[in-house]
Amino acid sequence: MGKDGEVDFSIIGLENEIEQIQSNIDDLENGKGGSIAIIAEQFAGKTTLINKVCSMNKNRVEMISLSSVVKDEKKLQEIEEQKQIKIIDNCHFLYRHKIGGFDIIERFLKTVTSPENKQYITTWNIHSWNFLENTHEISKYFPVQIKLQGLTQEQARQLILSEYEEGEIQFIEDPTENKEKMINFVIDNTIFLNKEIGIPHLKINYRQIKSKLSRKKIILTPEENIFENIYSISKGNPGISKAIWEQSLVYPQIKPGDIKEPCQDMELDNDESFILSILVSMQNASRSDIIEIAGDEIDIERALQVLSKKNIISSEREHYTIKPEILKCATNFLRRSRLV
Asked: In the structure, what pLDDT confidence band is assigned to residue 218 with cuts at 50, 70 and 90?
């Protein structure tokens, strides 16, 4: 709750996690508090959570937000010299998945377990955490582990609509003639021999088929349909939910048919898949970091070009990140490929 009993929509769905972290911070004064790992996929609210914790403990904590791979031990010294309670966002930037790329994180883990009465509140990309669990048994360094579970459909609706006045958004029924087809013929562009070519294939709308086969006889309103469609794509990830909403809204109107499935069948070669796995695990990476991790055996420029052409990634100042609406599809593809 905010001031005067108002709901703080910035932390909706994170109330229990905030209470758990705050309790652990208070326990530190009694010598009981342990270091905390907050674990979640990209766009799931890790930074929102720790920003709120930081604002609640302004005089007790100090926060560092890592935005790129840490290579200089001076940055690590900065972390070690902070206050008794340290919040460190994006700890997956403390290592590089390559030979010799674990020196920084190994020193950091030793710092976490030092006998000094200090507490580290850290955030981790879940895929990096799982990898480090296999290589370094990282869970033993953090007695408290909080895995963000995502929002319910109703919480996602509240979060999105909190930015608008009541009645500001118009939820419109789809005209019958504009209903989505269950099977569509589409053409995907790809790069082959340095030329762009179109590859035709059938695209199946699984959500439509599921709806047709459902035994439910409940008739949903356009608003209910819209947020059910958003939830089926985002699985409760707040960042993905908001991205889908923003892409679909033609202010001030929105229809259920405006919520498009971002992808169903992803086809990438080995180079493209490996680059994508880096971005899913690191959340974002500079061109130089990608080159250093991937090595000379991968045609990085071509792979980045293909991923951009297929609207899977975006870039700004030679920093690359996966598009929020693509994350679930990309993660499923990488799991099938055993790359995450």
From this structure: low
Each residue of 32-75: pLDDT tens digit? 778 999 999 999 999 999 999 999 998 889 999 998 899 888 87
Task: Give the CATH architecture of domain 270-336.
Answer: Orthogonal Bundle (1.10)
If one counts every other C-beta atom within 10 angstroms of the C-beta of residue 229, the result is 21
CATH of 3-147, one of 3.40.50.620, 3.40.50.300, 3.90.1150.10, 3.40.50.2300: 3.40.50.300
- The two domains 3-147 and 270-336 share their CATH topology (first three levels equal): no
Q: How far apart are CA 274 and CA 263, in angstroms?
A: 19
Packed helices 238-248 and 222-234: angle between N→C axes, nearest 10 degrees? 130
Q: CA-to-CA distance for 250 and 258, rounded, in angstroms? A: 9
Structure tokens at 14: 């994170």
What single letter denotes the amino acid at residue 151? L
What is the residue extent of each domain of the chain?
Answer: 3-147, 153-258, 270-336
Evaluate whether 78 touches 56 at the Cβ level (below 8 Å).
no
Is a pLDDT exceeding 70 seen at residue 243?
yes
pTM, rounded to two decimals: 0.85
**Residue 18 amino acid letter:** I
Residue 124 corresponds to which tokens in the numbers above? 């981790």
Spatial contact of 34 and 55, defined as CB atoms under 8 Å apart: no
